[in-house]
Design brief:
The structure is a single chain. By secondary structure, this protein is an all-alpha fold. The protein contains four helices and no strands. The protein starts with a helix and ends with a helix. The relative contact order is 0.04.
Length: 110
Amino acid sequence: MVKSWEESARERKNYVEQARAAFQNQEQEYRSEPVQQEFPGGNSTFGIRFVIAILLFACFVYCDQENIMFQGIGAKEVVQQIQWKPFPTEKLGELLGELDSSARQEAKKQ
């Protein structure tokens, strides 16, 4: 049995209406739930992360003052790795500047 275009269109329309009705019911349920009062930053882990950062910094300073090394790496090597730039940003800026100026010159020619 082959359905006509009208029948299949009607079925699709009914399906869409049922789906919309289901989502509207869910939306009403969410709205009816009581809103929980939250304190500002209540769910935040900022305080914990801040304390951990302070402790790590204190350990770093202590290891630097006492010349303590961990697996052959001292505080000076850590500072060098922090300062090391694996990507030459200065050269990239120069290259982009050259590309920009050449693009401007090409645009002026046209």
